[in-house]
Design brief:
CATH class of the largest domain: Alpha Beta
Largest sheet: 7 strands, antiparallel
Structural class: alpha+beta
CATH topology of the largest domain: Phosphatase 2c, domain 1
CATH architecture of the largest domain: 4-Layer Sandwich
Strand content: 25-35%
Shape: elongated
Number of helices: 8
Number of strands: 17
Strand order of the largest sheet: 6-7-16-15-12-13-17
Length: 362
Amino acid sequence: MSDRILLISNVPGNVMGWLEEWTSKYDVAIYTANTGLEGLQQFEKLHPILTIIDACLSDLNGMSLASIIKDTQAGDEATIYLYNLKKILQNTKADFYFVVDSDRELYDSMQAQLHSFLEKRSMEKMHSSEILRAEKQQYDQLPSPIENNVFKVSTLFSPMAKLSGDCYDYWTGEDDSGLYGFLFDCTGHDIVSFSQVGMIRSFLKKSCKMFQIGLLEGGTSGVLTEVNGDLFTVDTNPTPVAAIVFYINFRDNTLEYCTAGIPSFFIRQEGEIKIIESSNFLLGFLKDSQFHSKTMPLDNIDEIIFSSDGFSELLFHNDDIQEADIAKHDDVSAITVWLKRSSAEQPPQQEGAKLDNVIALN
């Protein structure tokens, strides 16, 4: 449907012709009303994006008409221009006033104002469409849950706004003996963040796949090292990103992981939730950053939760949340892996195996 502009004037001739000339490249329809009362009816019917009112009407003063429209429920969001003014009465409500001495001045000033208005609206509509496409794309690229007789994967994805700066992905090896994946957190949650998300996701997916097929040395640390290099290749001063890359080997019953600015993840072991702390530079922080992977046994571990800071800050911090007086202030995302345990499936206990940097949550 075309946008609508309503012109209210006893003698719309010149201004009507100008509007048709100025709006020819936009998807806009021009409507007219010859009196104030007709203008009120047309405004209620058409819901125009812009109403242009001649101050000199036969039945109502145009300034009074503008104020009447502005004080209605629909008029609160209306844009109104007033022209043909000799003076401005008290309590006149409009968005722009044309106080000019000639048709030439009115032509020039109204053309400039209308062009600015329509260009801004056009950009807003394009931006809105772009956001809708991006919002759909961000959900389309999220992985589906996985479940087999060894493990189950589920996810949480809760953007702070329409677009999230968080993203994750995971997939199994060819024989389901391994689970590869990553989760990362970009700064912000808008269209700019979404653009960065697409780039980081592409870099991580490429490097993880190379690690999976044996073309990348260093395991999960090699993945982050290569992605960090990719970031500095495309930008000498990249925006830092927090990330974690993981590989669960179900044959060996081990988890290999490497972090970049993600301070921790969670495990459930023998019914108790524990924090596994980690410390590494953010991706894009230093060009020559060294990332260090770790491998831990999964004996007696029933659940692993990889998450963004938005989730970690909320988990087990009810008192802090109440003091801050805010329920949620960031994107929240998480990957949860449940390990299905039975006596037949349990591998032998690895002698001397231990978990480093573990904090128990009572």
